[in-house]
Amino acid sequence: MDRFVDFRDLWTGIAGTNEHQLAERFAFVAWSIWHIRNASRLQKPCLPFSSIYRDSLERFLEFHKARRQGQPETQMVLDLKPPITTSYWTPPQTSQFKANFDGAVFMDSQMAGIGVVIRDSGGHVTSALSERLFLPSTVDDVEAVACRKAISFALNLGLDNVVFEGDSETVIKALNFNVRCLTSFGHLVDDAKALVLNFCKFFFFAYKTDWEYCC
Q1: What pTM did the predictor assign?
Q2: Crossing angle for the helix pair 7-15 and 22-41, nearest 10 degrees?
Q3: Are residues 104 and 64 in the same domain?
Q4: What is the C-alpha to C-alpha distance for residues 86 and 82, in angstroms, rounded to an integer?
Q5: Is residue 91 part of a domain?
Q6: Does residue 49 surpass a pLDDT of 70?
């Protein structure tokens, strides 16, 4: 069994493995431990520590299930026509980091979840987080919250050259345009624009589109 001297060493070991989605699952578990510890310290109701892994795994699966909702089912009939465009995740350039952010909506519980995964130029996960929040008004509101969290997360990690990538073209365009955003998430856009000024260089990219902005 590997032995780790501290949390950073543990995270480095996890990020360096090839096990599928291990880093993402670890992020859910780590956040649950932190959340339950704070709730216990403040004497608020919380899950017992023995239930952390099971609860974290359920939320991890729920998050990915919500992401898949609305996507077309796999066709059983083979389509011989090649797709017009094909999208692939690409790593950032050398000395850059890429922060992928996403949101999921859980209508049954009136909650939403956001996730951020940061990778280096080799495609290795270096940091990740996930959070739950009360359900905002729209899906774009959730995406805007996730984007703002990705920016603040990257700042807290001391990164200075970051590509921020999400799948909401509406939010990305609002961040790109140098005009006041009058949507329900306009205040989040304004806050995000102010935060990114702390980076030496940053990019906004909407996944599955050709829309990109850098500064």
Answers
A1: 0.58
A2: 150
A3: no
A4: 9
A5: no
A6: no
Q: Tokens 């797709």 appear where?
A: 83
Rounded-to-integer distance, Cα 82 and Cα 154, Å: 38
Residue type at position 39: A
CA distance 24 to 103: 14
* 137-to-144, 175, 193, 206 alpha-carbon distances in Å: 12, 19, 21, 21
Given this model, what pLDDT does residue 82 score?
42
148 residue type, one letter: R
Helix 139-156 to helix 169-176 angle (10° resolution) is 60
Q: Which residue has the higher pLDDT, 44 or 97?
A: 97
CA angle, corner 194, sides to 126 and 192, nearest 5?
55
Choice between 48 and 105, residue whose per-residue pLDDT is larger? 105
Which is it for strands 201-206 and 212-214: parallel, antiparallel or unpaired? antiparallel
Q: How far out from the chain centre does Cα 161 lie?
A: 17
What pLDDT score does 112 carry?
83
Q: Residue 133 pLDDT more than 70? A: yes
Is 30 within a domain? yes
CA angle 201, 203, 206 (to 5 degrees): 175
64 with 137, same domain: the answer is no
pLDDT tier at 81 (50, 70, 90 boundaries)? Answer: very low
